[in-house]
Structure formats: structure tokens, C-alpha cells
Amino acid sequence: MENFKEIFRYLRALYRYRVLFVTAFLLVMTGIGVYSLTLPKIYSADTTVFIERNVIDSLVKGIAISPSIDDRLKVLRYALLSRDLVTKTLEQLNSQIFTKSEAEQQEYISKLIDRTNLRVRGQELFMVSIKDKSPRFARDYVNTLVGKYVEENISAKREETYGANRFLAEQIEVFKGKLEAAEDKIIQFRKKNGVYFSVDEGTTLANIRELEKQIEDIGLSQDTLRAQKKQIEQQLSNLPETIDTVTEAADNNRLTEMESRLNTLLLRYTENYPEVIRLRAEIDSLKQRLEQPGNQEKTSGTTRLTSMNPLYQELQGKAFQIDAELSSLAARKLNLQKTIAKRENELRDVPTTRKELGLLVQERDSIKNIYDDLLGRMSQSEVSKQMEISNKADTFRIVDPAVLPKVPVSPNMLKMFLLAVAGGLGCGLGLVFLLENMDNRIRDIEFLEDAGYEVLAIVPNIVDPAVAKKQKFGNVMLFAGSGLYFLCFSGVFAYLIFVS
Amino acid sequence: MSRIEEALKKAAHKRQMPASEGGERPAPSPAFSRTAQPSQRVDVLLEVDPLEIENVLIATAREEKTVVVEEYNKLRSAIIALTKGDKAMNTLLVTSTASQEGKSMTSLNLAISLAKEHDHTVLLVDADLRRPSLHRYLGIKPEVGLVHCLRDQLPLEKALIKTGIGKLVVLPAGEAIKDPLDMLSSNQMKDIVRELKERYSDRYVIFDTPPALPFADAGVLSGMVDSTLFVVREGVANRDDLLKTLADFKDHNLLGIVYNDAHAFMKKQDYYYY
After folding, report:
1. Which of B163, B165, B156, B98 is CA-nearest to residue B131?
2. How crowded is residue A78: how many other Cβ atoms within 10 Å of its Cβ?
3. Tens-digit pLDDT profile for residues A161-185
4. CA distances (Å), A455 to each of A179, A450, B92, B203, B258, in order?
5. What tens digit of pLDDT does each residue of A365-390 get?
6. Confidence of residue A250 (pLDDT cuts 50, 70, 90)
7. Residue A462 and residue B236: Cβ atoms within 8 Å?
8. Is A4 on the interface with B (CB under 8 A)?
9. Nearest to A186 by CA among A347, A371, A350, A362
10. How far is A442 from chain B (nearest CA, A)?
11. CB of A1 within 8 Å of any CB in chain B?
């Protein structure tokens, strides 16, 4: 209710101040309209650049490395709108600005950079546009700027690829030399200390163990031999060097023995048993010998006949043999000990040499790694180079070069028209609102009632038909006139909008 | 206009038809002769052809029953109700804050509305000696008036003009004078007011005055009359001035306010509200 009252209040005020409102509206509208006609015409030219992603690029991924377009996009704004590029562009366009002072040039270029508008859409497109009073300049500037940028970019990319290739080639040469030197060093070292490298530590150790065991065995044999020798020496001391030779008694004894033996055999066997026969023969021969005088004399003459003891002699021989064996073992032991010492020496020397060699090998290996890496890169670089040469890498392509703009973008007549109407309406309404709010005259009975006064009657506005008629005529004239004026104004703008 | 309103209008019209017929009858009402002593003179005053009032603002003078007339009738009823009592309160002053607020028009319409009622005779005094206007509304050119009574001691009777509209008698200002304050505040004026009040004790005496904010006239006169009626015209008086002036009249038995010239937007709404 309160809101309605407020609205009614302002509607009434609007009606009351209708002449003022219409005048203000038309004046402001006309003012803005005329102003918009005096505005300079500004043309806009734009060009679209497509960032072409080559299929080959993804195919050769990992094989070739080409400079990334993405990196270029990141700095696109700075690269494209760099003072250097803009200056070059202006130079190419034979701009008159270079005839002016340095300060003016600086300012002009700064403003030009500010005016140049760059929009990047996704990863595929970017658009460059500029607004200028001269349509020709707008077109040429945009085209030249973008052309220059693309051209410089491609050559820079190519230069980068070639540079990388060159660098890799140089590095490969250097590392090749280093690698060869390292290999040579290793060969030299091996030659010098090669002996040690046939020795295996484990085997050497086992060898030493074996030798030690042999020495131990020799020791044992020596001990055994020494014990034997001692025993023999003891036996020798107990034995007489000479013994008694055989006597008659002995032959007799022997004869009896044989006879008893024969008797024993005859108990079991017949006379014809060979043993019996042989025994008889022997007995016979022994009896014959005993009956011979020569023999009798001899034996009776030397009753005690001594000769060398054979057992003693045998033992003595054995002792000599042991002595010889002992000396041989001692020699062998000495020999073995020498060998062990030599082997141990070898083992001591192995670690230091090996360490030295290890260092050399390590150095060689690291150089080799780098070298291999470089070789791999070199082949990638080679492919990249080939791609650049055959122009198969990602590139900028101008899909839509700027054309000569025919219609100015500014002032936008439709916009200016709407602005004029809105401005006029706003000013008129604002004026009415202001006047109504500044007006402190009584407009409603609530005010009186609120102040505590009784309103006895509300006499409505009494309309004099003559006055009313006149007022109506005035209203008609006012609205018709202003309507006609508004139509004319709109007509002018409609013409301008359609013509452009 | 709603159907109810139309019905009301029709009913009111029917009611008024016999009333106006009765009013046209020249015969003096028995009530009048019964109450007033010097009735002969008054009767004479009443026996004239009614004035033809051309002015559109004086809606009550015409026979049609418009919203305006209804409002004045409502005002009349309110005033009768407010002034009825033991003590006769038959003198009424009409004023406003600024000029051009419709004091004369209101006094005249109220007077006619009262006069058309059988029970009331009305004397309308044009006390606005600065810019008298009642005669213009009535379409008459009086040669003498209140000024002459005060200045030249002219008997009141000579200045009174019968209108023929109900029982309405008018005392015109006579002529415009530059500084009427002394004249209005004189004892003579007081005597005249008293005489009018007492002579027409059961009638209403309505004084039309100059605006109260620039001139003291209304203030002075308000001390001599029983009550005050304030006219406020939409879009004329400043709110602060209005409140200030109203505060001055609060002490002088301010009956209430007539809100004048209410415009269409508000009128209808408030009409139903009322």
C-alpha cells in the first residue's frame, strides 16, 4: 500500500511537471545525439591465427623433440606486443611516426600496444585486433604485426633446433675423445699389473691351505721316520755285529731232526710219498757228508766259526734309508714354505691394484654413459632437424587475415541512440524526482491527520470544462509535438544505423 | 463509479427534489418567523429571485448532485454537529495559510449548503478587505459593503444583499483597502460582529478572511468569532508554514480542515477510505 502511494505520488508529480519532463528529456536526448554524431569514426581490423598441431609431432613423440608451441603461447602476449616487434612493424609500414621526436614515438608506440587487443582461445587460436581511425592502417598494422610474429617464430624455432643439433655434435666429439683416453688408460694399467689379474683370491687361498696341509703331512712323516730311526738304532745297539757259523753238531742235530720228521711222515704216508723220498735222499746225502774225512777234519778244527750278522746289516741299511728320506722331506718342506710366502704376498697386493683399476673403469663408464646419451639425443635432434627442414613441426598459420573494415565499430549508433533515449529519460525522471522531493508543499491529507488535525471534508478538484479542454489541447500538443520530434530523432539514427 | 455510489446518488437526488421545490416557495418558513424577532426585514431579504451563479467552483449553487456537493454537505453536517451545544456558536471564520487556497469558494459553498437546509439562515461576510472576491463568485457588483459600515457608519442593513439562494444573505466587502488591520481590530468591528451574532443568533455567520500567514487579519478576527475553519489546498501551502499557522489557530476553536482541490489519484482512494 505504501509503495503504491509512493508510486502514485511520483506519477502525479510526473504529470504535474510534464512539460519540464518532456523538455528535459528531448534536450538531453538531442544533446547526446548530436554529440554522438561528432564522435570520430573508429574502425576495427582483426586477424585470426591458428596454431597447427602436426600429426607427425605425436607420431615422432620421443624420437624427435621440437620446440614447444605451448611455451610460446605462454609468452605470446609479451612477445607479440613487444616494443621491438611493434617498431619493426611500423618500420615496414613506413609509418610517419619516425619523422617525429623520440618522445612522441615512444608515446605513440605505447598507445598502439595498449590499443592492440589479443585474445587467446584455448590452445588452438589467437586473435589480434586493433581499433583505429584509419581502416587501412588498422588492417595493415594487424596483418604485418602477426606476419612478423609468425615469421620470427618459425625462424627462431628452426634456429633452436639447428643450434641444439650443432651443440650435440660438438659435445659428442668432445666425449668421444674423453672416452678413448679413458680406455687407453685402462689398457695401460692392465698391461702393467696384468699378472695379478690371473690370480683368483679364492683359489690362491685354497692353494695356500693345500700347501700348508702338505707341510703338515710332511711333518708327520718326518716324526714317524724319526721314531723308526730311533727304534732301529736301539735294536742295532743290542745286536752283535758278528754271529757263529753252522757246526757238525748242528748237522747231526739236523740229521736227527730229519729222521724224526721222516718217521712222522711214514706214519701217515707210504714210502713212495714224494716228501718221504726227498727226505730220505737228503738224509742220505747228509750221512755221506758226515762220513767224508775232509769234512770231518774241518769241522772238528774250527769249532767256533764267526761271520757278519745279517740282521744287523739289514737294520743298518734301513736306518740309512730313513735318513735319506728325512732329508728329502725337509727339502720339500722348505720348498713349500717358500711357495706359501709368495702366494701370500700376491694376495696382499691385489686390493690396491684392483681399486685403482676400479676408479679407471668407473671414470670410463660415466663418460661412456654420457656419450651414449648424447648419441641418442643426437639421433632425436637429427629427426627434429629433418622435421623442421620439411616443415612438419607445429606451426602458426594465419587462417583469417585482416580485411579492410568498411563499417566503423565506434560510435555504435544503435548504442548511442539507446544511450540518448535512456539519458533523456533518466534526466527527465531525475529532475522530476528531485523537484518532487524538494517540494515541501502539502500533497496529502495523511500529513494533516498525522499532525492531529481533523479533516472535515475533501473537496475534489473542480474541473472547469473550458480549462479542461484547453489543458487537454495543451497536453495533446505537448505529446504530439514531442512524439513527432522523437520520431524524427529516431529516424535520423535509424538512417545512420542502416546506412553503416 | 461503483454501483453503490450510483444508487446513493440517485437516492440523494430524489431526496433533494422535494427539498428544492420547498426552497423555491416564496412563503417564509414557519420556523424562521418563529425564532427571529426582526423577521420582517429578513423576509424581505429573502423575497428575491435567486442569483444565477455562473462560476463552476460554486458547485452547491447548482442542482446536480456531484461528489463536490456531497463533500460540502458532509462538511455542513460536521459543522452543525460541532457547533451544536448549549452555547450558541454560530460565528465561523474561514481562513488558510496562503492566498489562492479557496477560502472564498469554500465559505460560499458552505454557506449555500447551509442555506439550502431549511433550518438554517446564513450570513456570509466578506472580511477579506484586501482582495474581496465573494461578489465576483456571485456575479454581483455591490456599491457598499463592510468597509462602508466600518468607515462611514453605514447601517448594516443597507449593505446586506439577499441572494435568493435558500436563506443566504451576503455582506460584501464593499471595496478593497490597503491596510484593513486597524479597521478590523477596531471596537466598531467587534460591535458589528457581536451585533451580527446576536441579531442572527440561530443562524450561521461566516467570515471570509485574507490568508493567515502573511496577514494578521484572520488572527484578529478569530478572537471575535466562535470557531475557525481552515482551508488547505493541495499543492499550495508549504507544510511547515501550514503547521505553524494551524498551531496559531488551535487556540481559537479550530473546528477542522477542509482539504481543497484534491486530485483524482488520491480522491477516489480516500473517498472510500473516508
Report:
1. B98
2. 9
3. 888 889 999 999 999 999 999 999 8
4. 117, 11, 16, 24, 6
5. 999 999 999 998 888 888 888 887 77
6. low
7. no
8. no
9. A362
10. 5
11. no
